[in-house]
């Protein structure tokens, strides 16, 4: 009802009484020249036999709609799995502890926006059909003018495709209804860098068709070392001869140029699944041909490229690494010199 507004930022706009309602009574793209929205509490809960809404709206309602961590439940807000409220009570007082207890996910949108104002880490989010597509690395690009990525938070108006655009409204209109996904950390500073790990598995005759287990990786570059859990949601089924991609976040920026990756593998036996039992008659090794690491930077910022690509291969005479259960494989930047066919020792 107020014409001429330049921008409205919706910090987890309320769901009850607003979601699914007419644009006349809720936030929508026509309310300002630029409407950006951060969704953090769109998960409904089931309590005492009743379905209860999340505090925040899951419905897209802006020109750019951001869904950190899928926009439903935020890292560090599950009070059943951590002493979150007592620690907050001691550190920040009763008022903040009450917010954490009642509306930790809902309030996180405010904290993410504050963190984005002066932080050196950009909240890069990717336009994707679903959060699972995003986590599997299917939407990992940030090409200028494509609308494939955007900046969440205070600097959202400088997103690629909007800055220095002759008619930014045309670009904004094309994004209406799209969802932009990213991941964040558990505590301040919340912003994380995004890494896409591409795992190419070998398939020697001695390998099982598939194995399942847990993967962790250490990435080494001239800027330092970071440790990543590649299976944070539990064990993963891996078929030899296939390639897998996953997006993992970390607060550190390695600046590309990955020199070495150490990959740790642990086979997972489940007594409830007889096919996973691996005692004397099966091979629990994982055979890995190469590991690729991609890291994004926003286009046009400084002298850096928009995407760093590193492909690393096993440091041995074969063209793959044979990683035993609870063992480690080492991969280095020698792929261009290691192009011989798979060999069996």
Strands, helices and their partners?
Elements: E1 7-11, E2 34-38, E3 45-47, E4 50-52, E5 64-68, H1 84-92, H2 94-118, E6 124-127, H3 131-135, E7 149-151, H4 168-175, E8 179-182, E9 193-201, E10 210-221, E11 224-229, E12 236-239, E13 243-250, E14 258-267, E15 286-296, E16 307-314, E17 321-323, E18 327-332
Percent of residues in helices comes to 10-25%
Strand fraction = 25-35%
- Average of per-residue pLDDT values: 83
Shape: elongated
- Cα radius of gyration in angstroms: 23 Å
* Number of individual domains: 2
- What pattern of helices and strands is seen along the backbone? EEEEEHHEHEHEEEEEEEEEEE
Ranges with pLDDT <50 over ≥5 residues? 46-51, 301-305, 340-345
CATH level 4 superfamily of the largest domain: Alpha/Beta hydrolase fold, catalytic domain
Report how far apart the termini are: 75 Å
- Which second-level CATH architecture of the largest domain applies? 3-Layer(aba) Sandwich
Count of helical stretches: 4
- Characterize the largest beta sheet: strand count, sense, and whether it forms a barrel: 10 strands, antiparallel
List how many beta strands DSSP finds. 18
Q: Structural class of the secondary structure composition? A: alpha+beta
Quote the CATH topology of the largest domain. Rossmann fold
CATH class of the largest domain: Alpha Beta
Describe this protein's structure.
The chain has helices at residues 84-92, 94-118, 131-135, 168-175, and strands at 7-11, 34-38, 45-47, 50-52, 64-68, 124-127, 149-151, 179-182, 193-201, 210-221, 224-229, 236-239, 243-250, 258-267, 286-296, 307-314, 321-323, 327-332. Strands 9, 10, 11, 12, 13, 14, 15, 16, 17 and 18 form a 10-stranded antiparallel beta sheet that branches. The protein has 2 domains: 7-182, Rossmann fold; 193-337, Lipoxygenase-1 (Sandwich), CATH 2.60.60.20. The chain is built from 4 helices and 18 strands.
